[in-house]
Amino acid sequence: MAVDISKLREMSIEELDREERNIRREVWKLRVQQGTGQLTDFRKVRRTRKDLARVKTIRKEREMARS
């Protein structure tokens, strides 16, 4: 997936929330696949979790800027 940070910065809070939910769902699916032995690209879990961290960081920056 590899989320582009500049695109994240252009998103609204609602869009970031939606993106976070989608990425969380993807991480869950990947972990299920990993647990059942269906996942072949194990690095994808790590990359997806980093994308989630990026989204959460942008949201936190926005919240801190509002305060």
List the helices and strands and how they pair.
Elements: H1 5-10, H2 13-36, H3 43-66
Helix pairs in contact: 2-3
Summary?
This protein has 67 residues and is mainly alpha-helical. Helix content is 81%, strand content 0%.
Describe the structure.
This protein is mostly helical and 67 residues long. It has three helices and no strands. It has helices at residues 5-10, 13-36, 43-66. Helix 2 (13-36) packs antiparallel against helix 3. The longest helix is centred in the middle third of the chain and has 24 residues, at 13-36. The protein is elongated, with a radius of gyration of 13 Å. The model has no long low-confidence stretch (mean pLDDT 93).
Tag the structure with descriptive keywords:
3 helices, 67 residues, elongated, mainly alpha
Helical segment count:
3
Structural class given helices, strands, pairing? mainly alpha
Distance between the termini: 32 Å
Strand content: under 5%
Q: Encode the helix/strand succession as letters.
A: HHH
**Rg result:** 13 Å
Q: Could you estimate the helical fraction of the residues in percent? A: over 70%
Please outline the major beta sheet: none
Number of strands: 0
| Low-confidence segments | none
| Shape assignment | elongated
Assembly annotation = single chain
What is the mean predicted local confidence, pLDDT?
A: 93
